[in-house]
Design a protein that fits this description.
This protein has 131 residues and is mainly beta. The chain contains one helix and nine strands, in the order αβββββββββ.
């Protein structure tokens, strides 16, 4: 995110009473590739304008990393950007999914992705709470 947008998010967050809350994201990620499953479950706090690592798994010599960023908070919903990437054997990073999710508080949201070329299915469930 460029610095201008990050500053705008932080400035608008400071003006909002919603910014005083601590935001928690509960994440359940599952990926099935050619019969092998990879899973990650976590619960982390998010800070407006900052990218947070939500999971970092090393399975079968491949690193699987998920990050989240709190983009916007309104009275009705919270908007977060999620990125799930995998490090390939050649050292390059491949993005598995990069959704932007708008969800109400305590209202689970999910994203499913199928990659037929790689015989891969990925599922991401997210729930945002204020603590």
């Amino acid at each position: 995110m460029n610095e201008w947008k990050k500053g705008l998010v932080l400035f608008s967050a400071m003006l909002s009473p919603l910014a005083m809350a601590d935001w928690q994201v509960d994440v359940n990620f599952e990926m099935d590739r050619a019969g092998k499953q990879h899973r990650a479950q976590t619960s982390v706090s998010l800070i407006p304008g900052e990218e947070t690592v939500i999971f970092d798994n090393d399975t079968s010599g491949r690193s699987l990393v998920g990050t989240a960023q709190l983009l916007e908070v309104t009275a009705d919903e919270v908007k977060i950007s999620l990125i799930v990437q995998e490090q390939c054997p050649d050292g390059e990073w491949r993005t598995i999914m990069a959704p932007t999710i708008c969800a109400g508080l305590n209202t689970p949201a999910s994203v499913n992705l199928t990659n037929e070329f790689l015989d891969e299915f990925a599922s991401l469930q997210v729930e945002i709470t204020s603590v």
